[in-house]
């Protein structure tokens, strides 16, 4: 019960801010007293929140499939030679700025969700791959030998021993990836993607701090909700 309380509270706060933002109009008007409009109304905040979240979830799913799959492949006897290459490629994806990915992807893919998904997937790949490698390599050799001695095949050993023992480490990588990308996804608004970065960019362009505050506040609470949700899942798995 306690594990679910924190994400529930963050979710309630997120929903409250999304649908009851007009209640903060006096505060926003105090911040920007010379503005006729302090509430961002070009797009529904709920629609922006939904599209923002779906982009990050989609990118994280792809990154998880690629990262976990690559981590499994290069930790098998036949793939060990590719382990340094996999780590290096994932590191490049993390250090390459998402804005640069967007700039390179737009001429090829066009504006919209495509470049943003690609940037988020590349940026979120390293934590998942790194934790998958750490989790699988962290399984004690004696445990693997015991599984082999019980007659488990290599695929069965992976599914029944290695992955269950490393699932918390892998989940921590997915948690890091998704939490970071909940904030990073805002840059997608620069290439025509509808995200919570829309009010931030509109506020920066128009010099309207109230717009910036609305977008930034929702992004921050969304990231905190995501992190607390994964923390609750990790605790439940620890108990199990």
TrEMBL record:
One GO location term (cellular component): plasma membrane
Domain ABC transmembrane type-1: 49-230
UniProt topology in membrane: Multi-pass membrane protein
Superkingdom of the source species: Bacteria
The keyword Transmembrane appears for this protein: yes
Keyword Transport: yes
Principal location class: membrane
Subcellular location: Cell membrane
Transmembrane segments annotated in the record for this chain: 44-74, 95-123, 211-230
UniProt keyword list: Membrane, Transmembrane, Transmembrane helix, Transport
GO BP of this protein: transmembrane transport
Pfam families, A to Z: BPD_transp_1
Family statement: Belongs to the binding-protein-dependent transport system permease family.
PANTHER family noted in UniProt: GLYCINE BETAINE UPTAKE SYSTEM PERMEASE PROTEIN YEHW, GLYCINE BETAINE/L-PROLINE TRANSPORT SYSTEM PERMEASE PROTEIN PROW
Protein name, per record: Osmoprotectant uptake system permease
Record organism: Tamilnaduibacter salinus
């Amino acid at each position: 019960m306690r594990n679910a309380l924190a994400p529930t509270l963050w979710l309630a706060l997120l929903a409250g801010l999304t649908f009851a933002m007009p209640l903060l109009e006096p505060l926003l008007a105090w911040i920007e007293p010379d503005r006729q409009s302090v509430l961002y109304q070009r797009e529904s905040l709920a629609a922006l929140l939904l599209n923002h979240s779906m982009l990050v979830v989609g990118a994280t799913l792809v990154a998880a499939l690629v990262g976990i799959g690559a981590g499994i492949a290069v930790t098998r006897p036949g793939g060990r030679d590719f382990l340094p290459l996999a780590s290096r490629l994932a590191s490049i994806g993390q250090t390459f700025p998402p804005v640069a990915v967007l700039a390179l992807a737009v001429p090829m893919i066009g504006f919209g969700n495509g470049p943003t998904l690609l940037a988020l997937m590349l940026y979120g790949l390293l934590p998942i791959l790194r934790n998958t490698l750490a989790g699988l390599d962290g399984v004690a050799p004696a445990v693997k030998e015991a599984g082999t001695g019980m007659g488990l095949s290599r695929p069965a050993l992976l599914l029944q021993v290695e992955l269950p023992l490393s699932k918390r480490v892998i989940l921590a990588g997915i948690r890091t990836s998704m939490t970071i990308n909940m904030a990073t996804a805002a840059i997608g608004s620069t290439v025509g993607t509808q995200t919570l970065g829309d009010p931030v960019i509109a506020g920066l362009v128009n010099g309207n701090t109230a717009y910036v505050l609305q977008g930034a506040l929702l992004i921050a609470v969304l990231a905190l909700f995501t992190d607390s949700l994964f923390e609750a899942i990790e605790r439940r798995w620890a108990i199990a």
